[in-house]
What we know:
Layout: E1 2-7, E2 10-15, E3 18-22, E4 45-48, H1 53-56, H2 59-66, E5 69-73, H3 74-82, E6 88-91, E7 94-98, E8 101-107, E9 124-128, E10 135-137, H4 150-153, E11 158-162, H5 171-181, E12 185-189, H6 201-210, E13 214-216, E14 223-225
Amino acid sequence: MRFTYYGHSCFLVETGGKKILFDPFITGNELAAGIVDPDKIEADVILVSHGHGDHVGDLVSIAKRTGAKVIAGYEVVNWAQGQGVQNVHPMNFGAANFDIGKLHFLPAAHSSSLPDGSYGGNPGGFLLHGAEKKLYYSGDTCLTMDLQLVPRYTAVEVAVLPIGGNFTMDVDDAIIAADMIKCNRIIGVHYDTFGYIRIDQEAAKEKFRSAGKELILPKIGETIEL
C-alpha cells in the first residue's frame, strides 16, 4: 500500500490496483502551493468525509477530470451532483461493498456545511476493509466514545487521525484515540495549515513514542510505503 500526502487532510492511497483519494483540498492550501498540482492527481475513487471547504475544495474539478466515483454522505453527493459530478455513490453511516472492497462510513463528532452554506449532512470517517492493510481515516473529529467501535469491525493496521487541535483532536487526544481504535501506527493530518492548528511536529512525535506508538508525518508531496 502506498500513501501520498497532499497536505491538510488530503491524501491518496494506492492499493489493489486502485487509487483512492481522500478529502481533496489543495488549491486553497498555501503550504501545498508549488508542490502539488491538483490537475495532475489521478483517482479511481474519491472519499469525502464532510462538506467543509478544506475537504471539498478540489473535489469537483478532480472528479470531473478523472471520472472517479465520489463516495460521501448523501448531502455532499447531492451538492457534487449539482456541480456536474456524475459518478457518485451516496452513503449514510453503515457499510457497503465496492470494487475497492468493503467500506464503512462511520460517525465523526464535528460539523458539516457545504461551500454554498447549505447543510452538509453528518460528518464521518472511512474504514477500508479491502485494502492490503486495514486502514481507518477518522475524518475531522474530536475524541469520542464512538471510536471504541472501530476495532470491533476489524483490526486496524494503520490509522489517519487529525492532530492539530482547535477544530479536531489534538496530539494528546489522538494518542487516546489510538488506544481506543487499538492501532499504534498513526499518520497525522489536519495540522499546520492555518494558524489555529499549528503544532510542534517533533514534540508530537516524541509524545507518541513515549506512549509506545508511531506518529508518521509525511511531507507534502511525499509518498511512503505502508
